[in-house]
User: Fold this.
Amino acid sequence: MASTTVNVVRYTALLGGVFYGIVHRRSLQKAHDAEVKHHAIHEREHLIEEAKEAWKKKQESSKGGVVTNPEDPNFDLEKLIAKWESDSK
Assistant:
């Protein structure tokens, strides 16, 4: 049978290990949460940049004055074909 001193040392080591595990887990979780937040912020910035570029491209293409919607009363097939031909060159 183990003496009282040995049992005290065992349980002290056990509780110390459990406490260390909890503290270590918290620090790892905090670092992971910070990384996830950082990634989410940069992902949003990237999406905003893509949206701005798409908007600029849309605005530039609409300056051509060619209506591409066939349901629009201002639709002109000849202008659309001419624009496609000039874009392909």
User: Anything to note?
Assistant: DSSP finds two helices and no strands in the chain. Residues 4-88 form one domain. Residues 35 and 41 are 10 Å apart (CA to CA). The chain has one domain: 4-88.
